[in-house]
């Protein structure tokens, strides 16, 4: 099964019609990898679908996130970024609230946090895409000065 077919099946499974816009936007996020802003998704997807407009991209990203197909990463004043959700591989980020740099967290560490929180509290974290904010090492040192 091709990537496009797999993504179309995911859309249908989540009760979404497979429109050209949804398919191209979802494929763009999947193929580019990483975390893309709505503007980056728009620029990339517009090459394959020239009539696409930015409002459609925003609406589609919102509905794909609501359906659990994509994750979002918000980091302070920077635009929200989107990535394809991989339920079998939860991942997380550390976001510095001062310099706004983003650091990836090892998936094993995310899984350990999820298990320990559940053990301690009974609370089940939605850890598809965990984001923790604080100060990076450099900014923490600067704050002490």
Word description of this protein:
This protein has 145 residues and is of the alpha+beta class. It folds into 2 domains: 3-84, Winged helix-like DNA-binding domain superfamily/Winged helix DNA-binding domain (Arc Repressor Mutant, subunit A, Orthogonal Bundle); 91-144, Ferric-uptake regulator, C-terminal dimerisarion domain (Dna Ligase, domain 1), CATH 3.30.1490. Helix content is 49%, strand content 18%. It has 6 helices and 6 strands; from the N terminus they run ααβααββββαβα. It has helices at 3-13, 20-32, 38-48, 54-66, 107-121, 137-144; strands at 36-37, 70-73, 81-84, 91-96, 102-105, 129-134. A 3-stranded antiparallel beta sheet has the order 1-3-2. A 3-stranded mixed beta sheet has the order 5-4-6. β4 and β5 form a beta hairpin. The radius of gyration is 17 Å and the shape is globular. The N and C termini lie far apart (56 Å). The relative contact order is 0.12. The mean pLDDT is 86.
Shape by Cα distribution: globular
The proportion of residues in beta strands is 15-25%
User: From the coordinates shown, what is the CATH architecture of the largest domain?
Assistant: Orthogonal Bundle
Q: Are there runs of 5+ residues with pLDDT below 50, and where? A: none
Show the helix and strand layout.
Blueprint: H1 3-13, H2 20-32, E1 36-37, H3 38-48, H4 54-66, E2 70-73, E3 81-84, E4 91-96, E5 102-105, H5 107-121, E6 129-134, H6 137-144
Parallel strand pairs: 4-6
Antiparallel strand pairs: 1-3, 2-3, 4-5
Helix pairs in contact: 1-2, 2-3, 2-4, 3-4
Short overview:
With 145 residues, this protein is α+β, with helices and mostly antiparallel strands.
């Amino acid at each position: 099964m091709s990537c496009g077919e797999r993504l179309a099946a995911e859309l249908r499974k989540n009760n979404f019609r497979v429109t050209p816009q949804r398919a191209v936007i979802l494929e763009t996020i999947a193929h580019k990898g990483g975390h893309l802003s709505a503007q980056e998704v728009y620029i990339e997807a517009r090459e394959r679908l020239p009539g696409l407009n930015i409002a459609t991209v925003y609406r589609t990203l919102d509905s794909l996130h609501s359906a659990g197909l994509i994750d979002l990463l918000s980091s302070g004043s920077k635009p929200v970024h989107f990535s394809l959700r991989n339920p079998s591989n939860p991942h997380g980020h550390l976001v510095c609230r001062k310099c706004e740099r983003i650091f990836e967290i090892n998936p094993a560490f995310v899984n350990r946090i999820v298990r320990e929180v559940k053990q301690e509290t009974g609370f089940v974290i939605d850890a598809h895409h965990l984001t923790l904010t604080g100060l990076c090492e450099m900014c923490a040192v600067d704050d002490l000065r």
